[in-house]
Amino acid sequence: MPFRNVSVGRYEEVYHPGTFKCALAEFISTLIFVFAGEGSVIAYAKLTSGADLTPSGLAGVAICHGFALFVAVAISANISGGHVNPAVTFGLFVGGNITLFKGIVYWIAQLLGAAVACLLLWVVSDGMTTSPHALSSSEPVWGALVLEIVITFGLVYTVYATAVDPHAKGNVGILAPLAIGLIVAANILFAGAFDGGSMNPARSFGPALVALDFTNHWVYWVGPLLGGLVAGVVYEFMILCSSHEPLSSSES
């Protein structure tokens, strides 16, 4: 039955030592990811004296995000599952892979990690302003919302297919952090020209908080959370809950 494992959980999970360990892993991993990702944006602004992002600059930012997320997921996968993203946590909650109480703790850790990362960047860059995700001048709000839904769907679906699905064995499971990093880099290469390509409310929250600029910030929450929700529903209904097994090589 779909959603058979969705659970609110118990309040005791909030202060359980195991939950604290997972939260610490999420905090550190999100800090590392946002520090490198937002740091690449700040570095580009410093090197170009604040010039507009060029195609080559966008490629560099995308690659930096992809590498950083690859590492962030890899170092926390065996502790917390390597979510590093409230949208991923929400998508996994929909599929019954984490309880609501534990998911809330993950969210707090992820948001704190992103905020601390951006505060550190502000210090080490001698007060350079962080760059919150923003819509391009020609991008309508509804277009950015749909874009965030679609690209986050791709990210969370990748998480399910490579890291959650029990059939993801051997090399597929080992390559999960790399696949997750690559889909984020690919999405930023495309969506970066339209709305920055967030896919991650924590990644958007940190720079917005430090810069005190929350213009259209809701888009970077609603879009990714809806994308994560749809990915969780699709994978739970159509993949994990399917009774059909793939044909073996001898049957195909």
TrEMBL record:
<dbReference type="Pfam" id="PF00230">
    <property type="entry name" value="MIP"/>
</dbReference>
<feature type="transmembrane region" description="Helical">
    <location>
        <begin position="142"/>
        <end position="160"/>
    </location>
</feature>
<dbReference type="GO" id="GO:0016020">
    <property type="term" value="C:membrane"/>
</dbReference>
<feature type="transmembrane region" description="Helical">
    <location>
        <begin position="20"/>
        <end position="45"/>
    </location>
</feature>
<feature type="transmembrane region" description="Helical">
    <location>
        <begin position="218"/>
        <end position="240"/>
    </location>
</feature>
<dbReference type="GO" id="GO:0005737">
    <property type="term" value="C:cytoplasm"/>
</dbReference>
<dbReference type="InterPro" id="IPR034294">
    <property type="entry name" value="Aquaporin_transptr"/>
</dbReference>
<feature type="transmembrane region" description="Helical">
    <location>
        <begin position="172"/>
        <end position="194"/>
    </location>
</feature>
<protein>
    <submittedName>
        <fullName>Uncharacterized protein</fullName>
    </submittedName>
</protein>
<dbReference type="InterPro" id="IPR022357">
    <property type="entry name" value="MIP_CS"/>
</dbReference>
<keyword id="KW-0813">Transport</keyword>
<feature type="transmembrane region" description="Helical">
    <location>
        <begin position="57"/>
        <end position="79"/>
    </location>
</feature>
<dbReference type="GO" id="GO:0012505">
    <property type="term" value="C:endomembrane system"/>
</dbReference>
<dbReference type="GO" id="GO:0019755">
    <property type="term" value="P:one-carbon compound transport"/>
</dbReference>
<keyword id="KW-1133">Transmembrane helix</keyword>
<keyword id="KW-0812">Transmembrane</keyword>
<keyword id="KW-0472">Membrane</keyword>
<dbReference type="InterPro" id="IPR023271">
    <property type="entry name" value="Aquaporin-like"/>
</dbReference>
<feature type="transmembrane region" description="Helical">
    <location>
        <begin position="100"/>
        <end position="122"/>
    </location>
</feature>
<dbReference type="GO" id="GO:0015250">
    <property type="term" value="F:water channel activity"/>
</dbReference>
<dbReference type="InterPro" id="IPR000425">
    <property type="entry name" value="MIP"/>
</dbReference>
<keyword id="KW-0677">Repeat</keyword>
<comment type="similarity">
    <text>Belongs to the MIP/aquaporin (TC 1.A.8) family. TIP (TC 1.A.8.10) subfamily.</text>
</comment>
